[in-house]
């Protein structure tokens, strides 16, 4: 009963000394419980190299059985931890089989001597893990990653078991390096890209005027979930396009859940949505300039719903309402004067996915570019847009203890009450108010701007006062 819970051992010793039958049953229970606990305990393995933190900033706690880094010398402690984990994987095959989620990172934050040791330990550890379904690459400078580690990462990416990839706060030399990463996975279903930095500047700009159609088909790895945060969309989309030449690439025309956060370039967001929006059912945009009238006088609609023919749920988060500068008109323009969805689009979605490609790419790779006449849409009987749920999060910051232009939100009520949005079931608006400015916001007047949605019972308005103050 090695490593069995102490309370069960006490029960066995205290009450079952002479009862062999129940002693055998208790032993089997302990063994089963131990295996079940290991499945949860070792489901997530954090194999990030510990930071070299000065000794005065850490404290030493004598927990010898723990696999976490608690002592003042994180490098030495990390090595011991990795060695103990390797011994455990060698002796306990159930632990090796239980590990599913792996985190790798911090490889550029250690000395060359320590890196040589980790370059042996980490591949040895990963060679023991049978089935990795989720991989996170964290705080990695690609130029500093050694060949053994790159080979190890490539093996994981090419595994048929890998379903989720998370790349956070990594520095890549250029878009081509990201293209190579995208070309490796065979069964990826979920991808999160956050705070990716490209060392080589990318000078191309995505523009709706330079869009060229690209039909990506017959590729094995088909994304369903895509999250992008604080990352330049231009090289990212370029990498998606380039990876389509690979035998094993990531299809982006089947993405069902798309989240784009903290990206201020409206043209890139709009072009990216035009490229991947054909199958998107759930879209979340957070802290974008697309609807921020205080920074963006762009007359174009920030989101073109005709390129999102399958959209059922839309979340607009981080909307700013500062004094008399409201984003109401920008948000209302999303739902105003949109072409109705054709029956073919409504039932099947678009047959091709238009992807913006720089002209230079078309000249050097003719296979990327197809003639527009191959992709006519047949306009049959028109149907309403399938949007069912709309969620808007607004941060209201009154200036001089007041806020204005409540009447601008009436345009949103009129737009959403149009027959084109007869499928709409609910509109939820969260208004975040700073406690000190709460009295400067007229709640009754704001709710009164949505008479049609209120009459239909479709709108819910919540006023939230966070416990923290805005910086």
Automatic annotation (TrEMBL):
Entries under InterPro entries matching the protein: LRR_dom_sf
Top-rank taxon: Eukaryota
Protein name from the UniProt record: F-box domain-containing protein
Biological source species: Panaeolus cyanescens
């Amino acid at each position: 009963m090695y490593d069995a819970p102490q309370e069960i051992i006490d029960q066995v010793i205290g009450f079952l000394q002479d009862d062999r039958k129940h002693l055998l049953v208790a032993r089997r229970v302990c063994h089963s419980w131990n295996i079940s606990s290991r499945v949860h305990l070792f489901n997530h393995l954090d194999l990030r190299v510990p930071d070299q933190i000065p000794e005065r900033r850490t404290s030493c706690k004598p927990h010898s059985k723990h696999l976490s880094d608690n002592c003042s010398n994180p490098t030495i402690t990390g090595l011991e931890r990795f060695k103990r984990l390797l011994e455990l994987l060698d002796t306990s095959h159930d632990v090796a089989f239980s590990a599913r989620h792996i985190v790798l990172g911090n490889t550029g934050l250690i000395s060359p001597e320590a890196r040589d040791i980790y370059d042996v330990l980490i591949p040895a550890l990963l060679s023991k893990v049978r089935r990795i379904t989720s991989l996170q690459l964290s705080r990695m400078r690609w130029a500093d990653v050694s060949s053994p580690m790159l080979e190890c990462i490539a093996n994981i990416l090419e595994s048929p078991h890998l379903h989720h990839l998370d790349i956070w706060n990594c520095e890549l030399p250029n878009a081509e390096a990201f293209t190579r990463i995208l070309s490796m996975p065979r069964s990826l279903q979920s991808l999160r890209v956050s705070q990716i930095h490209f060392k080589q500047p990318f000078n191309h700009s995505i523009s709706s005027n330079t869009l060229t159609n690209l039909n990506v088909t017959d590729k094995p790895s088909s994304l369903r979930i895509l999250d992008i945060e604080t990352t330049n969309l231009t090289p990212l989309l370029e990498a998606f396009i380039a990876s389509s030449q690979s035998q094993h690439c990531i299809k982006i025309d089947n993405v069902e859940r798309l989240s784009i956060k903290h990206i201020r370039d409206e043209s890139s967001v709009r072009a990216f949505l035009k490229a991947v929006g054909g199958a998107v059912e759930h879209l979340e945009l957070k802290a974008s300039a697309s609807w921020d009238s205080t920074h963006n006088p762009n007359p174009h609609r920030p989101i073109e719903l005709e390129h999102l023919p399958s959209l059922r749920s839309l979340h607009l988060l981080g909307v700013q309402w500062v004094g008399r500068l409201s984003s109401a008109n920008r948000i209302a323009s999303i739902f105003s004067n949109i072409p109705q969805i054709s029956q073919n689009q409504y039932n099947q979605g678009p047959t091709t996915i238009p992807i913006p490609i720089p002209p230079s790419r078309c000249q050097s790779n003719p296979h990327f570019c197809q003639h527009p006449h191959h992709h006519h849409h047949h306009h049959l009987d028109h149907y309403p847009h399938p949007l069912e749920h709309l969620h808007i999060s607004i941060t209201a910051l009154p200036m001089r203890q007041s806020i204005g232009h409540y009447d601008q939100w009436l345009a949103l009520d009129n737009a959403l009450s149009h027959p084109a949005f007869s499928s709409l079931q609910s509109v939820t608006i969260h208004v975040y108010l700073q406690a000190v400015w709460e009295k400067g916001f007229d709640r009754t007047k704001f709710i009164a701007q949505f008479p049609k949605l209120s009459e239909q019972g479709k709108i819910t308005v919540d006023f939230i006062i966070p416990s923290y103050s805005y910086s």
